[in-house]
Amino acid sequence: MILAGDIGGTKCNLGLFVQEGLTLRSVFQRRLATRDYVGFEDLVEDFLKQATAGDENANGPAIDAAGFGVAGVVADGRHYSENLPWVVDVSALTRKLNLKNIQLLNDLIATALSLERLSVNDLVPLNPGIPVPNATKAVIAAGTGLGEAVLFWDGEKYQVAPAEGGQADFAPRTEREIQLLSHLRVQLPHVSCEEIVSGRGFRRIHEFLNPSVRHVSFESPEGNAPGEITQRGLAQSCTVCVETLGFWTEIFGAVTGNFALQTLALGGIYIAGGIAVKILPKLQDGTFFKSFCGTSKLAPVLARIPISVVVNEDAPVWGAAYQALMSHQLQS
Predict the structure, then answer these.
(1) Is the pLDDT of residue 75 over 80?
(2) Helix, strand, coil proportions of the chain in percent (round to 5)?
(3) Would you place residue 36 in the very low, low, confident or very high pLDDT band (cuts 50, 70, 90)?
(4) pTM (global) more than 0.90
(5) End-to-end CA distance of the chain
(6) Same-domain pairing of 194 and 213
(7) Does residue 164 sit in the same domain as residue 81?
(8) Distance CA 54, CA 18 (A)
């Protein structure tokens, strides 16, 4: 049995998988709210209890290997992130699960590892482009934070490397973006791309555009301002939300275009994360692609890059599960 998960700042998506030949099959899965738990070990323990709920004779599933994609930087078996309320420490979880080895990955690495396992129905093309065989590919995902990963061809297969472009400085292109940067510099010590291209960026842009317009979700720390703004924007029930959604999408397109240039991802760009799925109609209306191409002399090159949205939100879980399986097989 393989235990795998996608550990994010808002929710944790965990699953149990069994091996069938060369593939894995999901047998149990749950999404749990990250901040409902005081630590990662408690979250995993509760998940395993839920997996055996209703079976009084069950002692818990026999876990052979585990893998987790975690939001943030992963180094020496620990993760570092401002978007999680606790630290994921492999050593503590190894003792709890009595496993020799647990794979801890950056969540974008896990997503990148899942791409070859995804079906055509798991991807929605924004630009068919002209993929260059064996060229570099890149993954970018906006959610609680902004994550990136790069896939490069080693001569036989794709290898995955992490990237932390979400922490790079936000680079404004237009007069309105310059004004937004000036506005945010008063509030934040460092205006990174992630401070705008993430869930929290929606309210920041909304308040920048028109601070006098308030919504119910703004009045409580538990309120889902990003969800309300994007829903109102898609429904066109609030003019400020419509403008916010458009502005955010433009910036996301530009950040993704810069990432494509920095990595020369001529093999394709994959847009993952929960926000992309929720605002898919907006990503499809041309705003994102126009901003992605930009106006630089390499705009024609960017226009030929295939762009796809990963609509299977379980992709990081599958990537982590297969990485755990591979590690287990190597140790066996």
Answers:
(1) no
(2) 45, 25, 35
(3) very high
(4) yes
(5) 14
(6) yes
(7) no
(8) 20
CA angle 47, 93, 113 (to 5 degrees): 80
Verify that 36 and 90 share a domain, yes or no: yes
| 3-state secondary structure (DSSP) of residue 329 | helix
Type of residue numbered 219 = E
Residue 289's contacts (CB-CB under 8 Å, 6 or more residues apart) are 126, 127, 253, 307
State the average pLDDT for the chain.
Answer: 92
302 close to 294: Cβ distance less than 8 angstroms:
yes
Q: What is the CATH number of the domain that holds 48?
A: 3.30.420.40
pLDDT at position 89:
79
Residue 114 within a domain = no
How many domains, the chain? 2
Residue 112 belongs to some domain of the structure: no
H or E segment at 226?
A: helix 225-235
Confidence of residue 54 (pLDDT cuts 50, 70, 90): low
Q: Is the pLDDT of residue 113 over 60?
A: yes
- Cα-based distances in Å from 141 to 36, 224, 225, 269, 273: 24, 19, 19, 11, 5
**Res. 71 pLDDT band, cuts 50 70 90:** confident
Q: At 283, give phi and psi (nearest 5°).
A: -65, -25
Single-letter residue type at 282? K
Other Cβ atoms within 10 Å of 119 Cβ, number: 7
Residue pLDDT, tens place only, 177-215? 999 999 999 999 999 999 999 999 999 999 999 999 999
Query: Where in the sequence is the domain holding 258, given as residue range(s)?
Result: 119-311
